[in-house]
Each structure stands twice: as structure tokens, then as C-alpha cells.
Design goal:
This protein is α+β, with helices and mostly antiparallel strands and about 250 residues long. The chain is built from 10 helices and 9 strands.
Length: about 250
């Protein structure tokens, strides 16, 4: 899929001071600061749903945060986090840290190890080009404040549009041995978040979702690993199709 935007340092709705102020309300923020304080600019980023929420001017009530860190700095960061909470692994195999006595968590993904089956990642931009939908594919360097928006996610937030970043992921297990494939996971997430956020689904993305409705057969398997897909989310997708086809 084609997108016009590239990584940018232009003024956006996301500012480092605002992001840090929002994060201060999140359990474990102090430990995250200590774990990242010595990491230089260009090596640790916040990405995904937290930035999407702030771009939409929503309060930061998310139960999880997504951090990306370069391989050279991942070891020390994880060691510091492990000293002040519980370090396990999430469904994709990446480290997951929970602050003490909290149900919230952060996923720490190593940039060079991030792989959705289409290209090797070497920087945060190449990571974002393998995200699920554009409004999620936004990152901020937590040291410099530089915003990365390579697939126009901020514009789609403003337009309240759900647009897949790409649809050419291989239809293979999302992790070795899993029953769910990468495309199963993508289908569920796109349908879920379009409904949850109240976004219109971009036409190419909608056409792909409708052509792949058979992936609903994996709803239970998806719910066991991630979250339940509400029947209302599928109904909302079908209602958008009906509206588009109405004379």
C-alpha cells in the first residue's frame, strides 16, 4: 500500500513534554526512566497505542506500553527493569515487564529482532513499516522527542481512518508452532480496532477484510492469546460495507 509521508521532525500533535507528562501517571514510570536514562538519542522509542491515544487527545488509560530499543542497549535496559518488577515474555516472544503489584505492563522489543516476515529491521522506521495499521505506526524518540510517522498515521488519526500499513505479510504462523497465522492476527486486530476507535475503514483495507472473513474461525484461538473479538466489531465492518454499496 502506498503512503506519502516519511519520518519527520515537523511540528505535530505529539510533543515530548506532553508525552512524558502523560506517562508520569502510568505505574512504573520511574523505573522506566531509570532503565532508559543512559540510552542515547536514536536508540529507545515509545510506539503504538499510547501515542495513538495521545494523538487522538484521549487520556492515557492503556494497560500496556510498547517500547523499541536497539540491540546494543537492550540488555542493560532489561536488567534494570528486572530489578524492579517481573520480567516475562508476551505472545510474540518479546520481553514483557510488569511493575511490582500492577496489572499493567510494557513490551520491550529489540529493533533488530522485530520480524513480521517481510523485511529485516535496522531502525525504527523499518519497524513501523511492519505495523498493523497506520494510526499505530507512530513512534517517538524518548530522548530527543523526534517523531517518526512514515505511513501518515497522524493524518489518519485526524481523519479517524483505519488503514492497514500493508497486506503482504506471509500467511504463516505468527510464531513458530502457532495455529494462528500472521494474517489471522492482522484480520482480528483491524476489525477490533476499527470498532473500538470508531474509525472508518479505508476502502482497500475494507475490501481485504471482507475477502478474508473466513479468518473468523480463529476467533477463539485469538482470544486465548490476545483479547476477545466482539461480534459487534464484525457487524460494524459489515455495516460499513452495506453503507458503501447503498445507492
Amino acid at each position: 500500500m502506498e503512503h506519502s509521508a516519511t519520518a519527520t521532525t515537523e511540528s505535530t500533535t505529539l510533543q515530548l513534554a506532553d508525552v512524558r507528562a502523560a506517562l508520569r501517571t502510568w505505574p512504573g514510570f520511574g523505573a522506566i526512566c531509570q532503565a532508559t536514562v543512559d540510552i542515547p538519542p536514536g536508540h529507545v522509542f515509545l510506539a503504538g497505542g499510547a501515542l495513538r491515544s495521545l494523538a487522538l487527545h484521549h487520556a492515557l488509560h492503556t494497560k500496556d506500553l510498547d517500547f523499541f530499543v536497539s540491540a546494543a542497549h537492550s540488555g542493560p535496559m532489561l536488567a534494570k527493569l528486572a530489578a524492579s518488577g517481573e520480567l516475562t515474555h508476551g505472545p510474540f516472544g518479546s520481553p514483557r515487564w510488569r511493575p511490582a503489584d500492577s496489572t499493567t505492563y510494557i513490551d520491550v522489543m529489540v529493533i533488530e529482532h522485530f520480524d513480521n516476515g517481510v523485511e529485516h529491521c535496522h531502525d525504527i522506521t523499518s519497524v513501523l513499516r511492519q505495523f498493523d495499521f497506520t494510526a499505530n505506526a507512530i513512534a517517538m524518540d524518548l530522548q530527543s522527542g523526534q517523531v517518526f510517522d512514515p505511513v501518515a498515521g497522524l493524518a489518519d488519526c485526524r481523519q479517524r481512518m483505519l488503514r492497514a500499513v500493508r497486506l503482504d505479510y506471509p500467511d504463516e504462523p505468527f510464531v513458530p508452532g502457532a495455529a494462528l497465522t500472521r494474517l489471522d492476527v492482522l484480520w482480528m486486530r483491524l476489525v477490533h480496532y476499527a470498532h473500538k476507535l470508531g474509525f472508518a475503514i479505508e476502502p482497500v483495507t475494507l475490501a481485504w477484510l471482507l475477502a478474508h472473513q473466513h479468518r473468523q474461525r480463529q476467533t477463539d484461538a485469538f482470544a486465548q492469546l490476545f483479547f476477545p473479538l466482539a461480534p459487534q466489531a464484525v457487524a460494524a465492518m459489515l455495516a460499513q460495507q452495506a453503507a458503501a454499496e447503498a445507492p
